[in-house]
Write a structure and sequence with these properties.
Helices cover about 50% and strands about 15% of the residues.
C-alpha cells in the first residue's frame, strides 16, 4: 500500500522504516531535509514539500500525520487541503485531544475527505516490536488502511474502537493509566531506596518480573535503567507531562468520575519540577527507556 508520512521525528521515522520493511511504499516529508534523507536511506521515497508528498501518491490517497498536537496539526491539514481530493484520508497518529479530532473529522467530512485518529503507543521500541494502535474513524476508511495497521502493529495490536475521536479518547485514558503506573513504581522504589537495607534495586526489579503480580514491561525497563545507573545519580528527578494526563484529569472532572490516582500522579509530576526526588528520577528514567524522552542531567 502507499502512504504519505508527514513528520519524521523519533516516532514517524521508525514507523516509516517498519512500513518500508513490510513492503509498503512510503513517501516521507519533514521540514528537516536531514530527516527526509534518513528515511530515504531506509528505502522510503523523499518529498521536498507537503504538495510534493501528495503528488507522489496514487488515488485515493492516505496521508499520516506525526506532528505535535494542537496548532501544528491544524496548520498541516490546512496546508494539505489544496492538494487533496474527495475520498482521500488523513490519519492523525499523534497525541491529539480527542475533541480536536472530532472537530477535524467534521471539518474534513464537509469537504469529502476522511479523518482517522490513531492513538499510537510503543515509543522507541515500536520499530522492533510493533505499535499498539487505538483507531477511531468510519469503518470504510479503517478497513482501507488495515494493511498499514497490520504492518505497524504486533498480532492483535490494533483495534477500531469507534468513530472519529474515539481513538484519541482511548489513547488519552491509556496515558492517564500510564501516569498512575509510573507513579506507583516510582514511589515503591523510593521506599526501597530509603530502607535501612542495602538493597540491589535492579535485581529486585528483575525478581518482581518473575511471576509477581506487579510484573510488567515497565518493570523490565526499570531494571534496565537501574542496571545502567543503580542510584539514578546521573539524572534529575524532573518529569515532564505531554498533555494527555491533564486531559484525562479534566475529563474525570467533567464526567464526575473519581480518578484520584490518575490526577495525583499528574500533580506529582508538577511537584517534580520544584524538588528533586528519587521517585521522580525513576519516572524520568522509565520515560527515557520506553520512549526516548530526554532527561535532565545532574
Amino acid at each position: 500500500m502507499e502512504l504519505g508520512m508527514i513528520g519524521l521525528g523519533r516516532m514517524g521515522a521508525n514507523m516509516t522504516e517498519r512500513l518500508v520493511r513490510g513492503g509498503h511504499r512510503v513517501i516521507g516529508y519533514d521540514q528537516s531535509a536531514d530527516a527526509v534523507q534518513r528515511v530515504v536511506d531506509q528505502g522510503a521515497v523523499g518529498a521536498h514539500s507537503l504538495a510534493d508528498c501528495v503528488r507522489q501518491l496514487g488515488l485515493p490517497r492516505a496521508v499520516w500525520l506525526m506532528v505535535p498536537s494542537g496548532a501544528a496539526v491544524d496548520q498541516t491539514i490546512e496546508q494539505l487541503l489544496p492538494s487533496l481530493t474527495a475520498g482521500d484520508i488523513i490519519i492523525d497518529g499523534g497525541n491529539s485531544n480527542y475533541k480536536d479530532s472530532v472537530r477535524r473529522a467534521d471539518h474534513l467530512k464537509r469537504q469529502g475527505l476522511h479523518f482517522v485518529d490513531a492513538g499510537t503507543s510503543g515509543g522507541i521500541w515500536g520499530l522492533k516490536v510493533g505499535y499498539c494502535m487505538m483507531i477511531g474513524g468510519d469503518k470504510e476508511s479503517v478497513a482501507r488502511l488495515e494493511p498499514i495497521f497490520k504492518t505497524l502493529a504486533p498480532p492483535d495490536g490494533f483495534l477500531h474502537v469507534g468513530p472519529s475521536g474515539a481513538g484519541h479518547f482511548v489513547k488519552m485514558i491509556h496515558n492517564g493509566i500510564e501516569y498512575g503506573m509510573l507513579q506507583a513504581y516510582g514511589e515503591g522504589f523510593e521506599l526501597l531506596n530509603a530502607s535501612q537495607f542495602d538493597l540491589d534495586l535492579g535485581k529486585i526489579a528483575h525478581l518482581w518480573n518473575q511471576g509477581s503480580v506487579v510484573r510488567s514491561w515497565l518493570l523490565e525497563l526499570c531494571e534496565s535503567a537501574l542496571q545502567k545507573d543503580p542510584k539514578l545519580s546521573s539524572i534529575k528527578g524532573y518529569v515532564e507531562d505531554s498533555g494527555e494526563g491533564r486531559w484525562a484529569a479534566a475529563e474525570a472532572i467533567e464526567k464526575s468520575v473519581p480518578a484520584p490516582v490518575l490526577t495525583l500522579s499528574l500533580f506529582a509530576r508538577f511537584a517534580s519540577r520544584q524538588q528533586d526526588s528519587f521517585s521522580a528520577k525513576v519516572i524520568a528514567a522509565l520515560r527515557n527507556e520506553f520512549g526516548g524522552h530526554a532527561v535532565k542531567k545532574e
